[in-house]
Amino acid sequence: MSASDPATARLPEAAPGVPDMNRIVGSHDILLVTLDTLRYDVAAELAEAGRIPNFARRLPGGRWEKRHAPGSFTYASHQAMFAGFLPTPAEPGRHPRLFAADFAGSETTADGTFVYDTPDLVSGLAKAGYRTACVGGVGFFNKQGALGSVLPGLFEESHWEPEFGVTSPASFESQVARAEEIAARTAPEQPLFLFVNVSALHQPNWFHLPGARKEDGDSRATHAAALEYVDRHIGRLFTAMSSRRPCFALVCSDHGTAYGDDGWTGHRIGHESVWTVPYAHFLLDQGATR
């Protein structure tokens, strides 16, 4: 198997198409990336048009999977994801979950589900021997107040700087640099669970589109330009997280956002542009290149 060819990577399966997380947890590093506010339609269009090549070469079949978000804004959605409720496939049926707390009556806990007996996935992975680290982005991870400390407080270590936040045109580059440092100083024998909340897609994002002006505000086009910006640097993150051992990567949006769709703007609303999100999981072989 070529370490540089993601098309050859194969995940251990509990059933056809369903990864066996009990074989992955402990043997692989785990990377969870949330592309905060990324709309499914924009993500799908850019992948189809070849505008996000570094993502596309990792996505199964070169396409994002269409899913439904577990919440309509950052705090609610991340609380759900850290409890094991990742975005749900946007089709009817009971869909086996990758991670789940041990509780009676779960209809989506399957043979390949990693089940933990702690209150959340982060502490569940810590109990399984993982070092847990968070690189925050939007305000719910900035640790500047009690509310902004809840989500990063789940992790053994957490990081946030103004350079990681929504107003920084170089936010993702700064986040990746910190992630590289974390991976490099993690003991080789200890598996790593790294979470990165990417702030670049979130408003304001007008500055990612060449020629755009602040007074014109954000738009679907500037949102797309922000995703292209993230794509230019995502390879560094994948390289860092596969440098020590194979890495299981999950990349998704926590919710979308509206840009005048049917008269709606923003999120924390019940609109299709908010509830429908892109999702992917895939294996990064050890030594995977950008």
Automatic annotation (TrEMBL):
Q: Which domain of life is it from?
A: Bacteria
Which positions fall inside the Sulfatase N-terminal domain? Answer: 29-278
Gene3D superfamilies linked to this entry: Alkaline Phosphatase, subunit A
Q: Which InterPro entries match?
A: Alkaline_phosphatase_core_sf, STM4013-like, Sulfatase_N
- SUPFAM superfamilies from the xrefs? Alkaline phosphatase-like
Q: Which Pfam families match?
A: Sulfatase (PF00884)
Q: Any idea what this protein is called?
A: Metalloenzyme domain-containing protein
Species this chain originates from: Streptomyces bauhiniae
